[in-house]
Amino acid sequence: MTVLTKYEKARGIPAGAANNIEDFLSWLNSYLEVQPRSRKCRSVRKYVLDEFRKSIDIDYAGSDAASGTLENYLDFVPGLGYSRQVLAQSKSPMFDVVNMFTTNYDLFHELAITRLGYQYTDGFTNGIECRFSTREFHQRPIDLEDRFREHLQPVNPFFRVFKLHGSIDWAMDEESHTVSRLPMAVLVKRDVASDNLLIMPTSSKYAVTQGSPFSDLFREFFNAISVLNSILITSGFSFGDQHISELIEQALMRTDFTLYAFISRRNGDTRNPAQDFADRNAMQNAVFIYPTDNSAHEFFDFGDVARIMKPEEGMIGLGGEGEDEDADL
Fold this sequence. Notes:
This protein is of the alpha/beta class. The chain has helices at residues 3-11, 21-34, 39-55, 64-89, 108-115, 184-189, 206-209, 214-225, 242-252, 273-280, 302-309, and strands at residues 97-102, 119-121, 142-143, 153-154, 158-163, 166-172, 179-181, 197-199, 231-235, 258-262, 286-289. It folds into 2 domains: 1-55, no CATH class; 58-118 and 157-164 and 202-309, no CATH class. Residues 316-327 have low confidence and may be disordered.
């Protein structure tokens, strides 16, 4: 019996109909927890991860598709940055941090924030060896430009990027068990084994139960949406990741929490986790946004959302040093 056949049988999937790589890897990881000596499963997992890594585009300059996607992020991020500056002017400095949670493994968030001149942390220390530490999420750079002010001012806006399923540039050192961020030159050369990369494309609670950094990241997500009067905006999230959807459902039980979700509308009898989630959580503090006309589009793609979020031309605070920002899930 092949590994794929075992998976289909375990999940009740008709033969040859398996098409969900995240669920397959979730099952593989769980299987290897029980049968760690299974060479066949480890070989299949390595092959799938190798192919999965190759599918993640990191040619941000030479690829038309990647360049187009980056342009969307460059439209999207400034809208969040501008909103932080408006809130700061209204004497609300507590809202100067933007928490960006994503299940993507690419580097579009980091690249867009950097190109726009914003300050951010992804949980890694700076230096020759960039290592993961949750302490980085709880530190803020101080703006010393107006150093004669009575009080020191933190940089505004400031981004915190949480990659819940890992990243193409994260790697685990087998000896020290520390998590490091790889330089771009190493990524381009593919000079690291796929098994050492920390990309966790799983749709189950497996990712939550892992050690650092995954358990730490999910704890940060839970803490962020537990803050009084917090708002979560999602785009491109299908609500198919049960471990994330359950945390959002728990937050929706509080009337001070608000969700704005760009989702796809239901297409006939086709299974749609996002619409299923919307049906279960039809309440005032949950706003689900999707096309309601008879157009061929079932959802607003990220380009549409980016244009909605993009500030109008001429707005104050755009294009300056450290005067922009970004968001995702």
